[in-house]
């Protein structure tokens, strides 16, 4: 009966084979990585080395323990919340500034040296100033995350404005569209994909900055938990939190890559 079903649905088997063919390289790479991790920390490391604490058979129970204690979920949620707030601040600053710079040649010439200078400064180097301005707490973390994410968003917005087909703007002007109408109907839809790309790039940088930023005065978050586990010499928990940071970062990047975005050309075709 199974063979009859397969013969009557010939598209099912190739599709399943295609899914397996796409999935197995990634699955094999993950298994190989875990094996090399186990080999380095269990077989090759000295008997009393701290590396033995970071072996998979000790790290995975540590993840379960952190979860059962309620630490993992609450601190991961706080870290994600700080990331969202910092990204929102970066969007509020970066997108309007990018539109302004991209639409005005004189402003672009004036702003380019300043932007290039500021974006080359490590966001973490602003830490003393952020603490002096905002004190200890969430505000310095928001500042550092926004400082990390704002430049990719701004520069990609400028790039999106430059990529607009000027014919669309000429058509809008021929219909006597105001500047606000051009911005709403032509420019913003056209730069949407570029803004999404900038957000994704900024998100990666912001996530990297977030963890050390949480080691600078807050008493919650994944970065703080790394310091807390280190002070207790619980290196299995340190690696457990590092794994969680990697998984969450990959998940956030995946969500960002699936954000809706349509270019003006696609909108016009529709």
UniProtKB/TrEMBL annotation:
According to its record, how does it sit in the membrane? Answer: Multi-pass membrane protein
What SUPFAM superfamilies would the database entry show? MetI-like
Name where it mostly resides.
membrane
Provide this UniProt record's keywords sorted from A to Z: Cell membrane, Membrane, Transmembrane, Transmembrane helix, Transport
Q: Where in the cell is it found?
A: Cell membrane
Q: Does the keyword Transmembrane helix apply?
A: yes
Gene3D superfamilies xref list: MetI-like
Q: Which residues form the ABC transmembrane type-1 domain?
A: 76-256
Pfam families for this protein: BPD_transp_1
Which regions span the lipid bilayer? 21-40, 80-105, 117-136, 142-164, 201-222, 234-256
The family classification in the record reads: Belongs to the binding-protein-dependent transport system permease family.
Can you name this protein? ABC transporter permease
Origin species: Nocardia xishanensis
């Amino acid at each position: 009966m199974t063979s009859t079903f397969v013969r009557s649905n010939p598209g099912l088997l190739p599709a399943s084979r295609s899914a397996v063919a796409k999935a197995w390289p990634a699955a094999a790479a993950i298994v190989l990585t875990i094996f090399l991790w186990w080999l380095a920390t269990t077989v090759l490391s000295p008997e009393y080395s701290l590396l033995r604490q970071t072996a998979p058979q000790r790290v995975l129970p540590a993840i379960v323990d952190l979860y059962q204690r309620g630490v993992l979920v609450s601190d991961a949620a706080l870290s994600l919340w700080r990331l969202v707030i910092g990204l929102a601040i970066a969007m509020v600053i970066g997108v309007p500034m990018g539109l302004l710079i991209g639409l005005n040649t004189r402003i672009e010439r004036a702003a380019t040296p300043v932007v290039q200078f500021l974006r080359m400064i490590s966001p973490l180097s602003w830490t003393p100033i952020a603490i002096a301005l905002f004190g200890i707490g969430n505000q310095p973390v928001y500042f550092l995350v926004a400082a990390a994410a704002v430049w990719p968003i701004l520069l990609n917005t400028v790039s999106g404005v430059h990529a607009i087909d000027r014919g669309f703007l000429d058509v809008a002007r021929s219909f006597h569209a105001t500047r606000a109408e051009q911005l709403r109907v032509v420019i913003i839809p056209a730069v949407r994909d570029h803004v999404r790309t900038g957000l994704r790039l900024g998100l990666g940088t912001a996530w990297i900055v977030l963890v050390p930023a949480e080691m600078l005065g807050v008493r919650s978050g994944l970065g703080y938990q790394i310091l807390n586990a280190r002070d207790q010499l619980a290196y299995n928990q340190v690696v457990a939190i590092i794994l969680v940071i990697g998984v969450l970062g990959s998940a956030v990047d995946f969500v960002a890559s699936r954000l809706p975005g349509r270019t003006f050309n696609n909108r016009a075709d529709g």
